[in-house]
């Protein structure tokens, strides 16, 4: 299964590859074979990148799940006006080989959507957390509030977020993606007890980040 968020990019890639494939027919034999081999690998990588496997959120109450596939590269205390003082920041780095479809970490209502333009620093650079282009999303379920951000990276220059203000969302449901590797930062309220640690691998919609 492939994500609809990637259809436009996939179509552009296939058209470009078709044009290069046609041009390769006029190259010397060795160059033609090399170019066609590269085109095949590029198409396979594109299909692999936009894969979208089915996921089922854990059948548990009072949990917060990972919004992205990847590796936890940072956990630190964070005071935040939306989630409160004494909150916890968890940063998940997404390599180009991870599934890039993002999922809702907590059922509730979307009460904040804030797009911020910015730079395109490497996603693992701590400065990217504040300086890079990002989409900030806040969810309130009536008991707790959390904030998370889709952050662009050096290669990732296309953030997709299909959420609307005041929309009711459900844990584990798809809502967007970041194309070609980046990071997702999530700020958990003080009442949330962390269940993860730095270096841990996460699966969007399945890995339990915290309980409350």
Word description of this protein:
- The chain has 212 residues and is an alpha+beta fold.
- The protein folds into 2 domains: 46 residues; 149 residues, Glucose Permease (Domain IIA) (Distorted Sandwich).
- The protein is built from 3 helices and 14 strands.
- The chain has an 8-stranded antiparallel beta sheet, with no helix packed on it. A 3-stranded antiparallel beta sheet has the order 1-14-12, with no helix packed on it.
- Strand 6 and strand 7 form a beta hairpin.
- The chain starts with 6 loop residues before the first helix and ends with a strand.
- 34% of the residues are buried.
- The mean pLDDT is 91.
Topology (SSEs and partners):
Elements: H1 7-24, H2 29-49, E1 63-65, E2 70-80, E3 84-94, E4 101-103, E5 108-116, H3 128-131, E6 134-140, E7 145-151, E8 159-161, E9 168-169, E10 174-178, E11 182-188, E12 193-194, E13 201-202, E14 208-211
Antiparallel strand pairs: 1-14, 2-3, 2-13, 3-11, 4-10, 5-6, 5-9, 6-7, 7-11, 8-10, 12-14
Helix pairs in contact: 1-2
């Amino acid at each position: 299964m492939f994500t609809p968020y990637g259809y436009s990019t996939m179509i552009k890639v296939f058209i470009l590859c078709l044009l290069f494939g046609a041009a390769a027919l006029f190259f010397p034999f060795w160059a033609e074979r090399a170019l066609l081999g590269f085109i095949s690998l590029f198409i396979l990588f594109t299909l692999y990148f936009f894969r979208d496997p089915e996921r089922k959120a854990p059948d548990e109450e009072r949990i917060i799940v990972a919004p992205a596939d990847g590796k936890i590269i940072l956990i630190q205390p964070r005071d935040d006006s939306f989630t409160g003082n004494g909150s916890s920041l968890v940063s998940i780095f997404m390599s180009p080989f991870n599934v890039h479809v993002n999922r809702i970490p907590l059922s509730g209502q979307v009460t904040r959507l804030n797009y911020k333009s910015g730079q395109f620093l490497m996603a693992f650079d701590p400065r990217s957390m504040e300086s890079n282009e990002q989409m900030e999303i806040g969810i309130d379920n009536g008991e707790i509030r959390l904030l998370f951000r889709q952050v662009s990276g050096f290669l990732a220059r296309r953030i997709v977020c299909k959420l609307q203000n005041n929309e009711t969302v459900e844990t584990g449901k798809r809502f967007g993606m970041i194309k070609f590797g980046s990071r997702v930062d999530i700020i958990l309220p003080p009442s949330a007890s962390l269940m993860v640690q730095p270096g841990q691998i996460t699966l969007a919609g399945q890995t339990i980040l915290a309980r409350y």
